[in-house]
Amino acid sequence: MITSEMLFSYLIRKVVEQRSSLCIQCQRLFSSVAPAENLLSPTTNSRISPSQSDSSVSSDDFNETNENEWLWAYLRDRQIFTDLNEAQKRRVIELELQTLRESGERVPERIPDEKWSELSTTALLESRKTIYGYLFLRELHKKKRAANVAINDKRRIASAKKRSELLADGRVPSNYPGYASIYRHFGHHHEKLMREQKLLIPARLNDIIVIDCGFEQEHARERYLSNLVEQIQYLYADINKFHSPSFVYLCNLMKDGRLHFEFNRRSPLENLCFETTEVSYLDLFPKEKFIYLSPDSQNEMLEYDHDAIYIIGGIVDLSSKKPLTFGKAKRQQIRHQRLPIDRYVKFGSGSGKTLTIDQVFNILMTLKHTGNWHEAFKYIPNRKVAVRYTDVDEKKKHEYEKYSRWTGLGNVEHS
């Protein structure tokens, strides 16, 4: 695994080799120039003819070397990447790709046009290497997909040929083994039809969950938007787990925004049985029905309110600790609550208390169907959990909180 120090050393060696090559070219140039007394004689032209200079040395070499002086200063003084201009950043990225490729690292063959802006704003080398690895895997996926498409095309041509032969012989034009069976073939369109049938009744009864997509400007990196789209896709796949799931609204989803573009690039919104709109949820439903779920709220959620419309904030930026959902609920004067996670689950020391959108949806739906918080919080991954409190532990904890001030154990940590 190549490190940052190794990469900087390699780049410095490359620049030193270029400067050494320039010195050799300059020596060859001056050795080919006529002596000084010949230059001062009246019969000799004061200018040096092109034949007197080495043909291998051109003005382009000097221009290129002068332009690379900033690169030598950047590597020598360890300057900040963000202080360079766009052309210099592009040159540094190209050198990094060449160095990593020669070292056997996983780098893409080319950088897509939409990724140059993200790379130019990424200051750390390790972060850029992460993007290189992602683009490398994406190239492999595209190559594999192209190979599969070619195989499917050949298979489709062979199937059409066999179909025409079957029709010519007067037989059934189908390759499906269960064509004459009483069991029907079950495909993806049938799964979508089942989800639509499940969501039709809650949509009529206004049993709705809202995902607020109005935090697009808070996602500084493209991978956050990609993760948000993945979480919504996981949510869509989990609908069949529940008997009567709530209908999902994607509000504040701008058609010309980056999130909408990411949806269309990965999975078109037409394939999801959700309602998507640019309109705010305040213009669609009564404000008194809303409950905004926020981890920064002081109000603890005790039970599922079947008459309320719960709002889940579409935020994936793990580096931001700002109370964005809580602040938005306060500005819009909407009720806000937080999940009582600490009463039922103790997180590990190295894991954060952040939950994905699909996990929050599964928790709400389980609580809606069972009313049991212990069952609902089973959707929190085990890798994040240190202890899951049982019903007995919860009862003891409540008794401890109730009588601790009388027993003088208020400062003792409960275990």
Automatic annotation (TrEMBL):
Enumerate the Gene3D superfamilies for this protein.
3.40.1280.30
The protein here is known as RNA (guanine-9-)-methyltransferase domain-containing protein 1
What keywords sit in the KW lines? Coiled coil, Methyltransferase, Mitochondrion, S-adenosyl-L-methionine, Transferase, Transit peptide, tRNA processing
Q: Which InterPro entries match?
A: MT_TRM10-typ, MT_TRM10-typ_sf, Trm10_C_MTase_dom, tRNA_m1G_MeTrfase_euk
Question: Which residue intervals define the domain SAM-dependent MTase TRM10-type in the entry?
Answer: 195-387
A Gene Ontology biological process term:
positive regulation of mitochondrial translation
- GO cellular component entries: mitochondrion; nucleoplasm
Query: What highest taxon heads this organism's lineage?
Result: Eukaryota
Q: Listed GO molecular functions?
A: methyltransferase activity; tRNA binding
Q: Where is the composition biased (Low complexity)?
A: 46-60
Subcellular location per UniProt equals: Mitochondrion
Annotated segments matching region Disordered = 41-62
Major location category of this protein: mitochondrion
The cross-references to PANTHER family, in alphabetical order and at most eight, read:
TRNA (GUANINE-9-) METHYLTRANSFERASE (PTHR13563), TRNA METHYLTRANSFERASE 10 HOMOLOG C (PTHR13563:SF5)
